[in-house]
Amino acid sequence: MTPHRWLLALPLLLPVVLPSGAAAQARQTQADDYTRYELQAPGSAAFRILYDVSATTPGATHYFNTIRDGAEETVHGVTDLHGGRPLAWELVEGEEARRTGHPGASATGRYIRVSLARPVPEGGEGRIRIDKTYVDPESYLVEGDDVVFTRSLGIRRNAVVLPAGHELVAVSYPSQVAREEDGRIRVSFMNPGPGSVTYTVRGRKLTAAAAAELARATVPAPADAADVRLPMVPDDAARARLDYAPSERAFQDREIVYFLQQPETHAFRLFHDYTESRPGVGRYVNVVRAGSAVSEPSATNLDTGEPLVVETLRGRVVAERGIFSSDQVSDATEVVVISFDPPAAGASVRLRIWETYTDPGRYLTTGGDLVWDRAFGRPRNAVVLPEGWMLTASAIPAVVSETGDGRIRLDFVNDRPDEIRVYVRGRRRAPVAG
Questions:
Q1: Residue 363, strand partner residues
Q2: Please, where in the chain does CATH 2.60.220 lie?
Q3: Cα 334 from Cα 243, distance rounded (Å)
Q4: What is the largest CA-CA distance in the chain?
Q5: pLDDT per position as a tens digit, 26-65
Q6: CATH of domain 139-230+239-252
Q7: Taking Cα atoms as reference points, which of 260, 229, 176, 224 lies closest to residue 378?
Q8: Domain(s) of CATH 2.60.40: residues in the chain
Q9: What is the value of pTM for the model shown?
């Protein structure tokens, strides 16, 4: 796939200031890539690809998707995820891609050039879905009764769906496994690192009777992906979750970045991105955790770049406005409410919400150390230490990098359907004068 920007593995990109008419010459950037590979009939070497991606180059009117060498492609169409409508596209050679908006394109490459529904707004995104089929015998082959899909994946979030009538017998990286409504088995994978990995999935043909039974069996409805904290049975509960089916973790595109201020303030600035695709829903409610106080909230529609109406409500007003019922609120309840035009069926809205939190109970100093102790429910999370601080401990494994201004950044990929308790300690690089 096209070289891409992974928002949570790199320092936050600042808006690019372009001279007049220079948008077409800006380096193509993108975010939030997700790829679903649907393996077709064994022996066909064919797999259908549904590729979701956000174009992020300010002012861009086209997006270019690389056609991988060695594959025979059929493009079925491209959809604007914000409006839910089809987009125009065409196949172009590398030189044409360079000339019309992708200066980093390979001169010998081939590309799908997509005409975006609107120029990418400053600080916003143009979200699209590309639907295509590849025939690639090196990536998808048959070995006896087994089908094998093996492919170098540079995209961070991926899913592979086995052909009907096959069971999963092997997968090379820790993956979430689920059964689709039609009985096919899906494996989903989140790559926590910055580099490509070779992902291998092996499926085995079932008997006709077993395949028919698998297709008929009831599949529990997945949990609502809009819920950050999915309902979990306590560890000491003596019962199994008989109808439990988590939503696909790799497909969830909720993400958050915390920018820690100096610890004596107990404050951190953050932004979190959220996609609303439920028809008629025009309100996002963010519940402030107990022990935290929120200030300076703002929100943007990333699809259009327009600012959104934001309100902070406290206590009984939350119930009076119909946000929650009266038995769900107390005088200490605090919520941030973002209002937007609700999406129609088949459309969606991508939000970016900025807030500043103060939380002296979970962000503080002790013995000269900075301490951050907070549970994360989203699949992708990042913490940026304040200026002048080094990292000395992280209880949960993280990808560590340095931002452009010299701050230490930790990226946490949580591929589990529950929370991780992130514990970070830091220390000043130089003692405070005084």
A1: 372
A2: 139-230+239-252
A3: 33
A4: 79
A5: 899 999 999 999 999 999 999 999 999 999 999 999 999 9
A6: 2.60.220
A7: 229
A8: 1-135
A9: 0.86
